[in-house]
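ARCHIVE CARD
CATEGORY: sequence design from structure
SOURCE FIELD: tokenized fold
FIELD CONTENT:
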């Protein structure tokens, strides 16, 4: 599979922050790593408590913005996963993202879903480059399920 770059606007604030930190570290190798580590450890408990308290306060004061953030994040991560997998059905080339589904090449999707708890976590795995996933449109996905004997009650 070709390596695709995920544009930063597909990422949420926290993920962009992580990238910025990585870039900063690359630009100033060695510099302040020990210093920032020491400062982090010194203020860890106080900062953790402060961030948690601020987060709770902010979420209570802005429930609609919290919901929007979660929704946006969910869509951004799904979109990024689709970009990584080529944005079209592996079998027929269908490319309307509304009907594209992430398929586990060797099956076992249901078990993984139960294990990870959400599609969001599966998309994160796709983005991180873990192999074993492909994109199929809804039709091809159901047809593949039938061909592989992964029939569900609905498909029989
Ligand atoms: Zn298809």
């Amino acid at each position: 599979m070709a390596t695709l770059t995920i544009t930063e606007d597909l990422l949420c604030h926290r993920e962009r922050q992580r990238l910025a930190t990585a870039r900063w570290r690359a630009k100033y190798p060695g510099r302040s790593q020990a210093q920032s580590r020491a400062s982090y450890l010194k203020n860890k408990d106080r900062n953790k408590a402060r961030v948690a308290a601020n987060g709770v306060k902010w979420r209570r004061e802005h429930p609609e913005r919290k919901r929007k953030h979660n929704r946006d994040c969910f869509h951004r991560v799904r979109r990024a996963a689709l970009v990584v997998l080529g944005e079209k059905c592996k079998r027929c080339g269908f490319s309307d993202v509304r009907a594209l589904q992430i398929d586990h090449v060797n099956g076992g999707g249901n078990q993984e879903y139960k294990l990870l708890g959400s599609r969001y976590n599966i998309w994160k795995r796709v983005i991180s480059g873990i192999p074993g996933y492909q994109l199929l449109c809804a039709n091809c996905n159901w047809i593949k399920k039938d061909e592989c004997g992964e029939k569900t009650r609905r498909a029989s």
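CARD ANNOTATION: The CA atoms of residues 6 and 83 lie 7 Å apart. The chain has one domain: 12-147.
SHELF: design records, drawer C
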